[in-house]
Specification:
It contains 3 helices and 15 strands. With about 290 residues, it is an alpha+beta fold. It folds into 2 domains: about 80 residues, no CATH class; about 190 residues, Immunoglobulin-like. Strands 7-6-10-4-3-12-14-13 form an 8-stranded mixed beta sheet. Strands 2-5-9-8 form a 4-stranded antiparallel beta sheet, with no helix packed on it. A 3-stranded mixed beta sheet has the order 1-11-15, with no helix packed on it.
Length: about 290
């Protein structure tokens, strides 16, 4: 019996070492390739997006002017993509923002909208800027676009910006630097998924409604002062790489329990099993 116990312990030790090597190899491969694959996904699909609340420059006024009214909508369609042993949460976003600015001066002024892109390395399809339903020409650079309109004294102008784009993992709306005041603001986010998550230190929606196949989330504020942003995190898919690593890491425990039961049963029934039988059993279990 002592020989059997020693043989079983030796076999368990060898099997545990083999499983640990396998688990380490899987985890190392996953960790080493994860950042590289994420960069590949970002370069071909798009990075995490952070759309900023735009400002306007009113002629003769030095400081940028905040919007008096903002009505924003973002439709997020989640699409999982696999690279190597990992799944990545990519999405398509359709964005539409209507921003109202007041020319509070005593004369007609040129009001210029400065709208910044949510990510520099991204594509923007059907990008349009309009005022009162009429398309405006705009100039663009790496950081965003600018468009302007002449606005009479004490009158308001509403700029509407629309585009389609693609992103990765999170979609964020930045209300401003540090603690900022936002007036008459409403953001509606529609998703094609229900497992919506909001990262720490972000604003939770004021309204949340389940829709067929997804959710409708609303952030509505009349006069908000906050240093937090709005952030929607895409749900993650079960990762095959880390899962395989964890299963391999815990496999020796199940093997130990199996051998313990086998040892007890054969001892009670007085069945003599050669240590090689345990070796072959361990090999068969490991192969499966």
């Amino acid at each position: 019996m002592l020989k059997r116990i020693v043989a079983i312990l030796i076999i368990l030790g060898c099997s545990t070492g083999a499983w640990m090597v396998l688990a380490g190899s899987i985890n190392s491969r996953t960790d080493s390739s994860g950042d590289r694959l994420k960069l590949n996904i970002s370069s071909t699909w798009g990075a995490a997006q952070q759309q900023a609340q735009p400002m306007a420059i009113i002629e003769s006024i030095a400081d940028p002017t905040a919007a008096e009214r903002s009505r924003v909508q973002a439709d997020l369609d989640l699409e999982y993509r696999q690279k190597g042993l990992l799944w990545y949460s990519t999405y398509v976003v359709k964005f539409a923002g209507a921003y109202t600015f007041l020319n509070a001066t005593d004369a007609a002024r040129r009001v210029t909208l400065n709208f910044y892109f949510p990510a520099q390395k991204a594509m923007y399809d059907d990008l349009t800027v309009s005022v009162n339903g009429e398309a405006l020409p705009f100039s663009s650079n790496d950081s965003g676009i600018s468009a302007w309109a002449m606005v009479p004294s004490q009158q308001r102008v509403e700029f509407v910006v629309k585009y389609g784009s693609r992103g990765l993992e999170t979609w964020r709306y930045n209300l401003g630097k540090d603690v900022n005041r936002t007036k008459d603001f409403a953001l509606t986010v529609k998703t094609n998924f229900k497992e919506v998550d909001f990262p720490a230190n972000t604003l939770s929606p004021t309204e949340k409604m389940a829709k067929p196949g997804g959710m409708e989330l609303v952030w509505r504020y009349s006069n908000l002062i906050s240093g937090f942003d709005i952030d929607v995190a895409m749900p993650e898919k079960l990762q095959p790489g880390p899962l395989a690593g964890e299963i391999s890491g815990f496999a020796p425990i199940s093997l130990l329990l199996f051998f313990f039961v086998m040892f007890v049963v054969t001892t009670v029934r007085k069945v003599e099993l050669h240590p090689m039988n345990y070796f072959f059993l361990a090999a068969v279990i490991g192969d499966n």
